[in-house]
Amino acid sequence: MTTTNEPLAAAPERGSAPAPDAGTAPPARARWCAGTRLLVGATAAWALLLTLHLLLAGRWWPWLLVEATPPLTLVAVPLLLLALAPLARPVRRWLSAVLVVLLLAGVHLADLGPRWGEDAGTTRGTTVKVFAWSTDYWQMTDDKDDFYTFLRRQAADVYLLQEYLYWEGDQPVRIDDSARLRKEFPGYRLSVEGELLTLSRLPVVAEHHRPVSGGGTDWYWKGARAQRTDVRVGGSTVSFYNVHLPVPFRVGDNPLTGRFRDFLREQYDRRDQELGALRADLAGNPHPAVVAGDLNSPWMKRVTPLGSGTRTHDPGGSPLSALSWPVSDYPLPRLWRLDWLFTTGGLAVPDYTFRGGQDFSDHVAQEIRVTVPDDDAPNDPRGRSL
Q1: Which one of 52, 78, 109 terminates a domain?
Q2: What confidence tens digit (pLDDT) does each residue in 274-297 have?
Q3: 220-230 pLDDT, tens digit each
Q4: Measuring CA to CA, how many Å separate 54 from each of 51, 106, 299?
Q5: Separation CA 7–CA 218 (nearest Å)
Q6: Which residues contact 35 (CB under 8 A, 6 or more apart)?
Q7: Which of 109, 138, 166 is where one domain is finished?
Q8: Per the structure, how many domains does the chain have?
Q9: Which of 156, 339, 365, 374 fits a 20 to 30 Å CA distance from 330?
Q10: Can you spell out the DSSP letters for 247-312?
Q11: pTM for the structure as a whole
Q12: Strands 125-134 and 384-385: what pairing?
């Protein structure tokens, strides 16, 4: 038998793991599958988009295209990603937590949270009925008698009407329907500025028109988009702002053309100028104010508010019932709120609804009741209507 001088290897203890071979690498960490990477990437991209929306909305003209997105998207996208999050098993817990935060932020920004109701029946004063409506180019293809019948039926104290004009191709055409208006609304004061028409059967204290230099169609392209009329209500003067801000772009235009890009930038400049003028006028106005009309943006409450102490009001009902466009003319669901109501100076809004108008316009009409408090009067559930 052959013997050697080499020591014998010690036997491993029972239950102990075998020593790793010196040439064997430690096990690699498991890699994320393609689906997990896709979900994490989509969540990060959505968080970035939401942040950019807060930073760029109303401040950068190309972002007008993103602002045209229905606010409901801010809820639908994180909900979809949240439903898929369990598939990303290695990171599903923290990914779900992030998506819940994004969902709550979307609910807030889209104004789809619970509504606590308005201030009905809390102020003693004089209540007036206001009817605000974007009329869709003043019954160009509608029956004129039916159109005026609909307007008269509202029996409002103050009418704030937009789109008092016609269009020929892409050019605005000024109209004068004052004779018919005076016949249909005897006792009302008629005030026209550009495409904005205000009717009031209450005493008009002052009209604040902005002069427009130049001819042709400058009355439209350079004219004011917020018509202010000061009206006497009870013992107070209240400013009524009839507003129609420029559309961001023409629906149907090719977004890849220079014409589309130039129009988008021009409309942003007009909108920015008109919003600045409206905010400045509100800031310097000593009277309480009602601001209503088609502001052509669904982000006026949370993202690009008017400021200057304005209070935003919401129609009664569910959040989805506060959507105002389109109700006709377009093959799109009613997913946008473009029509808004703001007040300043302690005015109360005991009743506010979106109702009617779809037979004549792509915008639903705003029916509003505003109570102007009596001077030095205590709160009282009673009020008197004109």
Answers
A1: 109
A2: 999 999 999 999 999 999 999 999
A3: 999 999 999 99
A4: 5, 11, 10
A5: 105
A6: 87, 88
A7: 109
A8: 2
A9: 156
A10: PSS-TTS-TTSHHHHHHHHHHHHHHHHHHHHHHHHHHT--S-EEEEEE-S-S-TTTTS---TT-EE
A11: 0.88
A12: parallel
